[in-house]
Amino acid sequence: MEKLNVKAFGLACGIIWGGGMLIMGLVDTISTWGDVWGEVMASVYLGYAPTVAGSIIGGIWGFVDAGIGGMLLAWLYNKFLKAK
Description:
This protein is mainly α. The protein is built from three helices and no strands.
């Protein structure tokens, strides 16, 4: 088994989640699809709203949140791999 690159994994997680937050925010801006998603995410990420600016803020929050979470996940995986 190979170790995970902690920075690369964190960056990949951040890009995927941040991009998803941005896209979902923009979709919620132009339609009613995803209204409940937007309400839930607005309760998690300060500044997130179904607007263009709010979608960008949500994308940034999502990138940072998932980036840190991905780095922690890869670090923990590598620790368990080493312990084995």
